[in-house]
Amino acid sequence: MRKSQNFSLGLLVMLVIAGVGVRAWGIKGHLLWQDEAESGIYALQILDVGYPNAEFRGERLYENRSFIPSTSPKYEFESTNFYGSKFEKNKGWLPYYLIAASFKLFGTGTWQARLPAVLLSGFTLLVVYRLARLGASRGAALLAVALQAFNPIAWYYERQARYYSLETLLVVACLAAYLWLRRSKKRRAIFALTGSGVLLFHTHAVAAVLVGVFLLCHWIATAGIRAVVRQPGLPAAIGAGLLLTLPWVVGVRYWYVFWYGGLEPQLKLLWLTLASAAVVAGGFFVARVRTWIGRPLTLGLTGHPPAGWLAAFSAVYFLVIPVVVPAESVAEKQFVPLLPIIAVIAGILAGQLWAAAGRSQAALGLLLLGTLGGGIFLVLHWDTLQRASLYAADWVPSVVGELDLDHRRNAPLVLTDYYQFPLSFYSHGPVQLLYPLRCSYLESYPGEILYVVHPVRPAYAPATAPVEALPYCPAREESACAERLMLLRRCLQAGRTCQSRQSGGTTLYECSQPLPHA
Fold it and tell me: What confidence tens digit (pLDDT) does each residue in 108-128 have?
């Protein structure tokens, strides 16, 4: 028994090291792309003033396109990230503080920004093992860890200087803490769940609400309201959770996030609650499932192992996330936290198959299932695997060199259609996005203007469209965005002489001061 435990521990350590290693490999090979550079800028703001906010080096930050009117004489539209306050509130701040800590320890740079995400992926593998081990054998738990460690989609997202890696870790930690709570009913378990939930809230608030509502519905449905109320430490846990989350909600005026996303806040929360309750209720029917191998396969919500319960959570997550997050944020990245959960489910089911059938039959079944699953995986994710370097910002250094030279000479106003964040992060001067500016501001600007046009076409753009006519904006607003961009370009050139030059495959338009009569 001791030898078996030591072997399992050694294999787990090797899997964790290998998983972290493949994510760390080449993290400084490409510069930070748009969203990663945004995280880096917020980290620099934290080191400067203590919190992420709307301005960097004297210029406003805009993460995405917006048609929210602004009263500013300079900007025609508000940024959705800062709508309603000066604080960044589209996501939690915890990932930015971790990046800031990395910058403080190791200096500002590309690999330093990605290091926290890579290290956190190792803790995710450990929690995956713990979650699977609560409901399965060591072999099944190690298989789950291996599936997550060598998942190329997980590699892609868990090495980025974003919230993906931390959110994934904390979602799995919440599920593991809840399962521990249901098995033990200990005070430590309820506080572990509360702590994980609070950290998840400060990483991705929407995911935290989803997880919290689902677990509450599941707890009440399977244990009864009396058992929930009698849980030792519950009042203190609720009080601590509210104390550690509500001040941030009020301080950043978080509720503004919901008003531009399509549905009003109360409708989104109602949908989340109803969807969670419906899937939890449906889980009772799942508990009656029997498998083709002729033996009961425990898929119940409270059974051992908890494969059905995790599948129910995955279904709720998959159904609800597209409704409760802003429309422009609905993408593959929102479902990354499901990857380790799917790995745990697969490990548990594989372990049951191995135990229920003969070894030769189980090996054949696992081989067939693995082949089928691998084929489906590649079909569904081929696009992600192919675009691994689509957003690489390696063109930035040559442009930054040009910008820094110009800043030393006459400090022109630097404008860009897109990629404001990489240019701002790697350069030493301010960079402004063209899109939200007012035409009157551009026409009356007294100095020189340097306008940067990046040649990479957005993935959704039709191949026949001219590159420079397509701004980066949601597809449903593409036509309006393109028209506005062309209008602003005309305002930019009004009364000025503009000369273009190439730098690293990017076009720079250097526009002189306006003529006296303009």
Answer: 999 999 999 999 999 999 999
